[in-house]
Amino acid sequence: MDNLELYNKVRNVPQEAKKEIKGGRLKGMTDINPMWRIKTLTEQFGICGMGWKTEIVNKWLDEGANGEIIANVEIKLYVKIQEQWSDGIPGIGGSKFTSKESNSIYTDDECYKKAYTDACSVACKNLGIGADVYFEKDSTKYDVKPNTEQPGSKSTKSKFTQISELIKDTELTMDNVKEWIIKYYKEDIRINDLTDTQFNSLVKALKKYIAEQPNE
Q1: Final residue of a domain: which of 134, 162, 187?
Q2: For the chain, which end, N or C, has fewer CB atoms within 10 Å of the first or last residue's CB respectively?
Q3: Residue 168 domain boundaries
Q4: Which residues lie below 8 Å from residue 189, measured CB to CB, with a gap of 6+?
Q5: pTM for the full model?
Q6: For 35-51, what is each residue's pLDDT tens digit?
């Protein structure tokens, strides 16, 4: 297996698995649905317990600011490749056990479950799962190369033009591309309105499809 083969398979997070964080210190960042990670692990390695598994190594409480208490969980994630189990992939997560509200102290009886979920996300990150959310400026061999024109040049190609050139001399049409966009992102988005991450994922899929077509 190429070193980046798995990373590139699992780096992209579909729109339906992402949610913008609306408040708190993480406002504006992206939250990933934890079930998407479980689905991805199952797709790549097999059923939980047979193709991948986790081990809770430790759990403990820490004192936080203003008398709050934080629950922490340390895990190891194991994945099986070609009938061989990996070493434990570490992950540590945390969640508030007690937190101060306006007139009282709130105790969360699901804090360890949330901390475990957080720890799983950290371990999965080491495999590249959801990498595009954490590292939006990363690139792959399928990405469109940056334009070399001077800043402000009017010859910079639009996303639509780049896709048009990519599918030129293939059996694909722009209507096909539109169908792909609707399939991947569950809505009809104009090519020029795609985010850079969405656009690069689309280019990657198109290039892979074109490369797999038999030569005439």
Answers
A1: 134
A2: C
A3: 139-216
A4: 181, 198
A5: 0.62
A6: 999 999 999 999 999 99
